[in-house]
Amino acid sequence: MGAGSLGRVTRRESAVDTFFLSVESTPEVLEALKAHEFPTNIEVGEPTPRNALNDALDSPLGAEEIRQLLEIVDLVFKDGADILAFVTALVGFVKHTDAGSAAIIDSHTARQIAVVDAKSNPQTVADTVARSRGR
Amino acid sequence: MIPFFQLDPATLTLWINLDLLSEQPNRAGIATVVDATRANDDAALLESVEALPNAEKPRAIAIASSLWHEKRHFLDLILTNYGAFRFRQFFEIAANLPVIYRVVTEDQKRRLGVPLDLYTDPVRCQRLGIDTNPELARIGAAVRSRKQIIAGDRSAVPSRYGRLEVGGEAQLEALAYLHQSAKAQKLFGTQLASAALDSVPDADAHHAKYRWIWDVAVASNVVFFDQAAENLLLFDDALMVCVVYAALACRVWKQPQTRSEASSSYLPGERFASLLIALREQRLGPPQILPFDESWTLINQTCTRLFGRSVIEETEADWSIAQQTYESLRGKILPALSDVVMELQAVRKRLIDQLKNDPQSVLRAADFQDRLLNRIRPRVVLCSPKGRIDLAEGFEQVFGYDHSRAQPSLSSRVSRWTWAATEALGPMPHDSGAIVLREPAWMTFASELAPITKLVTDGRRHRSMLGPEIVHAEARLRTMANAEIIVDPLFGAPHESLDFPSFLFLLGSDEATCDLSSKKVTALSGVMFSKWLLLNNPELAELVIQFWAAGYPNDSAARLTFWKDWSPWVVAREYSPTQGREAFGEALAKLASQKSKNERVPLGEVPEEVLESHAPVLANRPANGRITDRLRSAARRYSSFLHHRA
How do residues B220-232 score in pLDDT, each as one tens digit? Predict the structure, then answer.
């Protein structure tokens, strides 16, 4: 029994030229992302809420800060897809909604790679995303 | 946030964290306070608080009063349309477990991805290497749409007081808090009650979550209020409670809605705003304190005008549709589910009659405290994330582990433990006036069906008091269906924020013991993290186990104790695993070199014979025969997706 044999999340590697990212933000931003016409080698999945259906109610002995409930969506990038085009579009959607920000997440580990807001430089964010793939 | 008490809306059970109780510096004093509150014995509660040192009284009252808060949730989740809606969302997925089971067992690859909404998305299926499946996609779509409905109602709105939620969830919290604070004031006086309720950590977050309704009451200009002193606000809480109850009488089940520019009969958040706008428009002068009867009549009349139904009519209509639906499902769903939902309907009917004939007892704080609160007895699940419960007579295990199931030759006491237990007979078995869910099937539901339902709807990303509830569900489903359970990493751990200062408040201490160095740490020098951080980073977990293992006969002992203890971790900042694998490893190595072998046995002794074979732990735990048989049998009989109106 390894330390994580029960708790480890099953992870599957994809083909070398295909990789996945997830974006977490408001439903408005993800709706715009879904509707955007990306090149055919960038495919956007179905946004889904991240809130639980079954959360126990909060306890009055300590409350969590109220936050906007967010959704998440998967994107698959194939055959050298242009990360910069994706980030540029995402920054635009954040800028034109009330979202404030969107998080780019490694779909396999759930680790946050970058947070973009209206002032983010798309090239810098795209470089961060590209570097994260090399880790 | 680590809950002392928590009401699970899926199973309507009240969970009590015994670890937090047992680790109080004044364990006896606080336990007496909690016992008196649980027993609804106000005289004993006053006496037990009086016996405490003055400095401890506010925190003790805060703890005791939070039990009233959870009991109020129990009532509102059963009685209101919104509460029934919440339960139904969960119930519908539970009703479909046989279908899920059949689909998985028919799948040649024997794989099930969770949460099920991933089946609605070919991209997620591709990422996880899971085949799409139309039947699971239908259930997944139902899961997703229900989450979206609840998220829509819970949308945070900006206000002059910061972000506020005003939907059903927030209304339940505000209602429970109003009644909690009213009872605390009555029992302990305004000054001590205020000190108690204000003693909780993170006052701003607390205010936004529980007291938002006071701000809205003042800003709405429809509820009488008076700033009686700098820190004393008097306001007409009866009217506000009536407004909230009318808002919680939401109209669901796909019934026709009434909508206009300024009103909607649909979800609680929309109804709440509709009612405040209407009340403001129709009032003739400055707000006055209204007698309760007038408040209730005013709100019912306003509801009839806006939505075409009074609060009572809306609630009765909701109950009737539910009754028809559940009766039509009888024989088509697992018998345990039928039993729990029909009892729930019967108790709800009693409460609706009480609201109809005696609304003060439900809505007016003073009457509620005197006539109803003491009759509310949710089933209690006593839990110990550390696995330290000794099962007393009259109690039965809800979640536990027994190593001898995997290795029958080992039956030592330390190789089995209990994480959660409940009274075998259920609460108040002989009191017909009690508001209680007595059906034995509730325990099958809470211990077997509900955890699996939570897993398929939310993966591991839901708030729960006990981690083993999640891993039990995974192990059970894996064993029953002989299938690989694939948890989407994006839903791979509970979404919880653990705040160390809040934890210290709950412990009633300024310091706690570092789980690695055994040194005392304060809010400044310590950090807190969940066991899931280690479970999802096996390399970090391995470093901890190897560090412990030096103090045991072999590393198996460390592994077993690692699995047993699901309490949050407290460590000195220099030993935080969030600094990365390398730095964490170096810090542990340095710590190990400073300690002698005998000093590094932090978790008690485990006899060597227990640990000779440690491979098949929960993963191979035999499933409960009865429920497995029922599920298999139901899967054969009912193969189509049972979908009733949302």
Answer: 888 888 887 777 7
Residue B636 has pLDDT above 60, yes or no: no
**Residues above pLDDT 90, as percent of chain B:** 58
Asked if B439 and B339 touch (Cβ cutoff 8 Å), the reply is yes
pTM: 0.91
Q: Does B421 touch chain A (CB under 8 A)?
A: no
Q: Give B618's contacts in chain A (Cβ within 8 Å).
A: 6
What is the C-alpha to C-alpha distance for residues B133 and B156, in angstroms, rounded to an integer?
35
Interface A-B: count of C-beta contacts within 8 A: 232
Helix (H) / strand (E) element for A34: namely: helix A27-35
pLDDT at B554 over 90: no
pLDDT given at position A59: 75
Residue B449 near residue B457 (C-beta atoms within 8 A):
no
Integer Cα distance of B558 and B336 in angstroms:
39
Which of B111, B124, B166 to mutate to probe the A interface, most A CBs <10 Å?
Answer: B124
Nearest to B144 among A10, A49, A63 (CB): A49
Q: Do A75 and B150 touch (CB under 8 A)?
A: no
In chain B, residues with a C-beta closer than 8 Å to the C-beta of A109 are 489
Q: How far is A16 from chain B (nearest CA, A)?
A: 13
What is the Cα–Cα distance from B471 to B552, expressed in whole angstroms? 26
A34-38, B402-406, B612-616: which has the highest mean pLDDT?
A34-38
Q: Which residues of B touch A51 (CB under 8 A)?
A: 147, 150-151, 154
**And the tokens for B639?**
């193969």
Convert the pLDDT of each residue in B82-140 to its tens digit.
999 999 999 999 999 999 999 999 999 999 999 999 999 999 999 999 999 999 999 99
CA B440 from centre of chain: 21
Q: Which of A9, A56, A68 sits opposite B487 (nearest CB)?
A: A9
Closest Cβ opposite residue A22 in set B9, B209, B490: B490
The model's pLDDT over A67-104, given as tens digits with 9 standing for 90+, comes to: 788 999 999 999 888 999 999 999 999 999 988 999 99
What rounded mean pLDDT belongs to chain B?
A: 87
| CB within 8 Å of B595: residues ≥ 6 apart | none
In the block, tokens 């955890």 appear at B451
**Beta-ladder partners of B165:** B156
Interface test with A, best of B74, B147, B561 (most A CBs within 10 A): B147
CA-to-CA dists, residue B250 to A52, B81, B131, angstroms: 21, 6, 38
CA distance A84 to A15: 21
Helix (H) or strand (E) holding B44: helix B42-50
Q: B197-218 b/e with 16+ CB inside 10 Å = b?
A: bebbbbeebbbbbbbbbbbbbe
Higher pLDDT: A42 or B641? It is A42
Spatial neighbors of B296 by CB under 8 A, at least 6 apart, are: B242, B359, B363
- Suggest the residue from B12, B92, B123 to mutate for an interface test with chain A (most A CBs closer than 10 A): B123
Instruction: Compute the nearest-CA separation of B285 from chain A (Å).
Output: 35
The CA distance from B148 to B176, in Å, is 25
Q: Count Cβ neighbours within 10 Å for each residue of A43-60 and write b for 16 or more, e otherwise.
A: bbbbbbbbbbbbbbbbbb
pLDDT above 60: residue B217: yes
Nearest to A9 among B147, B206, B492 (CB): B492
